[in-house]
Design goal:
Layout: E1 5-10, H1 24-41, H2 46-51, E2 54-65, E3 74-84, E4 87-96, E5 102-114, E6 117-119, H3 122-128
Amino acid sequence: MNYIFETKMQVRDYECDIEGIVNNANYVHYCEHTRHLFLQQCGLSFADMHAKGIDAVVARMSLQYKTPLRPDDEFWSRLNLKKEGIKYVFYQDIYRAADEKLCFRGQIELVCLVNGRLSTSEEYDRAFASFL
């Protein structure tokens, strides 16, 4: 896959469960943080957009857990993006940095609420234009 954004992170001890692996819910947090960093790179602030009455919300997620991450593992969180009608579809993969082993694959669909109503967002469309 051709990725349009990536960021490096590290597993923190408290993100792991009793089995010594990252708890499944934390991968969703990693993906969300990656999307927020991507938004910043595109010149958007999630908080500023909310203040304007524009909220990008998760509508659907498809998650695949491949290889567990463990405490102190560094990893790359990468994403690609496409638009399908009113939805923005983020393809997000997480790779362990030490060996580039695929650990997680997610497809996250977002839609925009403008003043509480499902709608398109010119701001998001403009910010993502070079990637779509």
